[in-house]
Specification:
Spore Coat Polysaccharide Biosynthesis Protein SpsA, Chain A; seven-stranded mixed β-sheet; three-stranded mixed β-sheet; 10 strands; globular; transferase; cell membrane; Glyco_trans_2-like; glycosyltransferase activity; Nucleotide-diphossugar_trans
């Protein structure tokens, strides 16, 4: 079975980080990226045996880049510090990758918002998968629950300097013709703060990410290459 590295970017999420780490013990490696935190995030990560990578440059793009550069597993699992993975989460990822075809370079999963009606999760993630998937021509990566071949990331590594992009969308645009992203639900529980403000900024960042990438991969070129 493939070896698994888990990457968790963290900025002042000590309490939620403890919850996230609880069911990740089956991973071969856990990397917590301390992204300029001023709380006990790093100390909690070390309590769970995680490798702590310090990244003083604030921003998810910098944090993920730092974490991925330290990953030694064949498969890198990317989750957020504010999610709750269920028991058996890592083993299901491992089995899915053991069965995956060679052209599958990444898998993207699902999440349910904690203490919120299911329809809110369906609307939030359904809109993301449909709208961004239409721009990509394939499944987009969902940053709170996705995994990828580490070697593939090294080959396509995006520039982390633009911190206004959505890092998961930005990486999704690196999927090359002939490569596939597979939907593998394996749902996690998500903190509902994504629903509690900042929607306008999220949309702005989403459009920015698409525009930046369409400059190099216009849809009339990208989509036919991936919808054959």
């Amino acid at each position: 079975m493939p070896s698994i590295s888990v990457i968790l970017p963290c900025h002042n999420d000590a309490a939620l980080l403890r919850r996230a780490l609880h069911h990740l013990g089956d991973a071969d490696e856990i990397i917590v990226v301390d992204n300029a935190s001023s709380d006990a995030s790093a100390a909690i990560a070390r309590q769970y045996g995680a490798t702590v990578v310090d990244q003083p440059l604030l921003g998810i793009t910098h944090a993920m880049d730092a974490g991925m550069q330290h990953a030694s597993g064949e498969i890198a699992v990317r989750i957020d510090a504010d999610i709750l993975p269920p028991a058996g989460f890592i083993q299901r990822v491992r089995r899915a990758w053991e069965r995956a075809d060679e052209d599958v370079v990444a898998m993207s999963g699902w999440g349910w918002f904690d203490h919120r009606p299911a329809r809110q999760s369906l609307l939030y993630l359904g809109a993301y998968y449909c709208s961004v998937g239409a721009a990509l021509g394939h499944w987009p990566l969902f940053g709170s629950n996705c995994s990828m071949r580490t070697q593939w990331w090294r080959e396509v590594r995006p520039d982390p300097s633009d911190t206004f992009v959505h890092d998961d969308m930005h990486l999704s645009f690196r999927v090359r013709p002939g490569e596939k992203v597979k939907f593998f639900a394996n749902p996690v529980v998500m903190d509902p703060r994504a629903l509690e403000g900042g929607i306008r900024t999220r949309f702005a960042r989403g459009w920015h990410t698409i525009r930046v990438n369409w400059q190099h991969q216009p849809p009339w070129k990208r989509l036919p290459e991936r919808l054959r």
